[in-house]
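HUMAN: Would you supply a protein with fold tokens?

ASSISTANT:
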Amino acid sequence: MRALQVTELLPDHAGTALADLPLPQPGPGEVRVRVRAAAVNFPDLLMTRGDYQLKPELPFVAGMEFAGEIDALGDGVAGWQVGDAVVGGNRYGAMAEYCTVPAAALRAKPEGLTWEEAAAYPVAYLTAYVALVRCARIEAGEWVLVHGAAGGVGLAAVDLAKALGARVIAAASSADKRDAIARLYATDAVIDGAPGFRERVKELTGGVWADVIFDPVGGDVFDESTRCIAFGGRLLVIGFASGRIPEVSVNMPLIKGFSVVGVRAGEYGRRFPARGAENVAAVDALAAAGNIRPHVHAALDLADWREGFAMLERREVVGKVVLKP
């Protein structure tokens, strides 16, 4: 089978290349999936050079999330059949024609989604759901400011917040990205995420500020967000794409009455398995009903993986890039 294999941890993905590997065999409790599409995520890029917290033993096949059809069942697998359309995630191994994963890591593909869309939504929308529903307890009509709104997780938050009845302000760094967001999701407003966005938020909300702020950027964006959040607001810490981990003087949340909430969707599910299953079911139900729609920026052949990686590195992607093995 064709697979994108990492044999050395080197800059510029120099230790990564297409390889012809033996077909993997599912072990007990595992299934083999014929991968139809695999999403490209920043951790995939980081792992090729050893810059991610997870460092798989070499060699390994890249790729964290996928959509495809069950091809073979290992011993002891119940509830699945060969030919079932599924989506799933694993720590690595998805960027190949076939992958083996624990049966428990799979869920049924929502019928309304294409293979490419199905590969693009599991991680991003689960993160957005845990952030907005579990952590922020979002209510219809609230103002939600989403930073990094063109990214995979940010765009999922925009889409989900709209579906939940919030009034959404999407902040993005370039005019092209802002135009794409407005066209795709008809948000209440799309603004420049550069410093100074505070005044635009004040104007849009009539001075009541944002009830919920979704921040995967950190750095200066977080700092300014503490100055445009409503009393009783929830500032969601998703990540630090800017490269700087910010700090906050606790007198600010005290005086302004807001909460700073860290979001770790995967850990949330591990700590609270029942609620984690509810989260997954809720996201899948929204997708099946057509209430959320992941956006695929580009769908490329696996052979064009380097261009897909470069799109993320150039920060030109709106939504997700997927590879088709």
Observations:
- The first strand starts at residue 2 and ends at 6.
- The mean pLDDT is 95.
- The chain is about 30% helix and 25% strand.
- Residues 2 and 240 are 34 Å apart (CA to CA).
